[in-house]
C-alpha cells in the first residue's frame, strides 16, 4: 500500500520536499515510492546519510505506522551499507525531533553518521546535557504516565 496520495502533502518552503520534487539536487543513495536517502550536504563524517519520508512530516509522531516502518526498513538496510562503503567502525543513527533537540529542517530525517575509532566524536548519550537527579518515585511516575 503506497503513500502516493500523501505526496500532495509537500511543504513549499521545505528544503527536503524540494529535494523530493527534484527542484534541489541531492546525492541520492536510496529511493522507494515513500522513502528517499541522500548524502548530507554538510556531513559530520564521510558517508553521512539522511533518510527521509517523501511526504512532509515535521515530527516523528506525525508518521503513520506504515511510513514509520518503511522509513526504518530503509535505515536498517542502509546503515551497514554506508558503514562498509566508507570503512567505518560503527555508526550513530538518530533523529533530532523538534528545535530544542537540534532539528534544523522541519521534515523528519534519520541521520546515519559513520564513526571511526579515535574520530573524536561522542556517543548519543552526550547529547542530553547534564543528567537529572531523579528519585525512584519520580521515575515510577514518569514511567506510569508514559505507559498510560
UniProtKB/TrEMBL annotation:
A motif (Histidine triad motif) lies at residues 107-111. Gene3D superfamilies: HIT-like. It comes from the Archaea. GO terms for biological process: nucleotide metabolic process. One of its GO terms (molecular function) is catalytic activity. Residues 15-122 form the HIT domain. The active site is at 109 (tele-amp-histidine intermediate). InterPro entries: Histidine_triad_CS, Histidine_triad_HIT, HIT-like, HIT-like_sf. This is Histidine triad (HIT) protein.
Amino acid at each position: 500500500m503506497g503513500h502516493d496520495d500523501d505526496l500532495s502533502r509537500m511543504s513549499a518552503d521545505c528544503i527536503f520536499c524540494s529535494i523530493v520534487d527534484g527542484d534541489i539536487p541531492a546525492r541520492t543513495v536510496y529511493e522507494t515510492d515513500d522513502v528517499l536517502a541522500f548524502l548530507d550536504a554538510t556531513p559530520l563524517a564521510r558517508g553521512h546519510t539522511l533518510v527521509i519520508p517523501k511526504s512532509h512530516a515535521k515530527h516523528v509522531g506525525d508518521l503513520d505506522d506504515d511510513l514509520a516502518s518503511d522509513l526504518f526498513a530503509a535505515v536498517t538496510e542502509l546503515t551497514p551499507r554506508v558503514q562498509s562503503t566508507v570503512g567505518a567502525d560503527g555508526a550513530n543513527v538518530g533523529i533530532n525531533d523538534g528545535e530544542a533537540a537540534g532539528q534544523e529542517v522541519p521534515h523528519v530525517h534519520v541521520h546515519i553518521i559513520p564513526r571511526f575509532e579515535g574520530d573524536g566524536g561522542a556517543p548519543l548519550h552526550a547529547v542530553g546535557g547534564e543528567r537529572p537527579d531523579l528519585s525512584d518515585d519520580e521515575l515510577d511516575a514518569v514511567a506510569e504516565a508514559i505507559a498510560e
